[in-house]
Design brief:
With 257 residues, this protein is an alpha/beta fold. It has two domains: 24-109 and 216-253, Periplasmic binding protein-like II (D-Maltodextrin-Binding Protein, domain 2); 113-210, Periplasmic binding protein-like II (D-Maltodextrin-Binding Protein, domain 2, 3-Layer(aba) Sandwich), CATH 3.40.190. The protein is 40% helix and 21% strand. The protein has helices at residues 2-20, 38-52, 71-76, 88-96, 129-138, 148-161, 164-168, 177-180, 191-194, 227-237, 243-248; strands at 28-33, 55-60, 83-87, 106-111, 113-118, 142-143, 171-172, 186-190, 200-205, 214-220, 252-253. The strands form two sheets. It has a six-stranded mixed sheet with strand order 2-1-3-10-4-11. A five-stranded mixed sheet has the order 7-6-8-5-9. α2 (38-52) links the parallel β1 (28-33) and β2. The protein is globular. The protein starts with a helix and ends with a strand.
Length: 257
């Protein structure tokens, strides 16, 4: 009898806990993120998990491109996700495909393109468009990322400067780590992607006349299993509490729409 009574009490306590505790406390939010916002996200995520009681699992992928690990490719083959954080250009493609819940997208931050060299190397002149062009042409190799900004540099910036043919053979889609290891002489990437890379130094922003502001955004994925928890994460990333970490990562917080 005592055993039955204890079992009844235990069952009642568990039932009460389920009623009292919010359902989202058991939620696990799945995020796929591209590189540009990763530094800020890495600082903000522990604070969000602690304050919300939610658990977040994070994987990575490029915002655009033809590779199998881009965020779009992952979603198309059924990789489960609740939130994507990526370059706005790539997100717009997914919105057009109906893979994002309508109206759920929010811009988080923007960052300018910068040029970096290996730590200790001479810093080239990029103060004007002509100086920047000369720097690109004189470099023995250039490292880009393989996603949105790399696409911009190769398909728009190079043709605009009239150097597309000259740059083709010496351009590597290997990212700024190739500069740190000496495999490439310079890199042009979003400053938020350059700052975390050890072994390089940022020379500065490329000239305004040829600048590309990379906007990174978050959105709720269609078919999300945890839409309420996912929306809480997006709200946190766009809140005033997130602004300091965003600025420290080399980005400027976006103004709410």
């Amino acid at each position: 009898m005592f055993t039955n009574a204890r079992a009844s009490i235990t069952t009642a306590v568990v039932a009460l806990a389920i009623v009292v505790s919010p359902a989202t406390s058991f939620a696990q939010v799945k995020v796929i993120i591209s590189g540009g916002f990763s530094a800020a996200y890495g600082r903000l995520l522990p604070e969000f998990e602690k304050s919300s009681g939610l658990t977040v699992t994070t994987t990575t992928g490029g915002s655009q491109g033809n590779g199998p690990n881009t965020i779009g490719s992952q979603l198309r083959r059924g990789v489960p996700a609740d939130v994507v954080i990526m370059n706005r250009a790539g997100l717009n493609d997914l919105i057009g495909e109906g893979r994002i819940v309508a109206g759920s997208d929010r811009d988080l931050a923007q960052t300018a393109l910068g040029l970096a060299v290996r730590a200790g190397a001479a810093k080239p002149d990029i103060s004007t468009v002509d100086a920047f062009k000369r720097t690109l042409l004189s470099a023995r190799s250039l490292a880009l990322d393989s996603s949105t900004t790399g696409i911009y540099v190769t398909t728009k910036l190079f043709p605009q400067l009239g150097i597309a043919d000259a740059m083709t053979a010496k351009t590597k889609m290997s990212g700024a780590t190739a500069v740190a290891t000496g495999e490439a002489e310079i890199s042009v990437q979003p400053i938020s992607e350059l700052l975390p890379v050890k072994g390089i130094e940022i020379v500065g922003k490329i000239p305004d006349e040829v600048q590309y502001l990379a906007v990174f955004s978050a959105a709720l994925v269609s078919g999300s299993k945890e839409p309420d928890a996912a929306r809480r994460l997006i709200a946190f990333l766009t809140s005033d509490a997130a602004k300091a970490a965003i600025r420290d990562s080399g980005m400027e917080p976006s103004t709410p729409r």
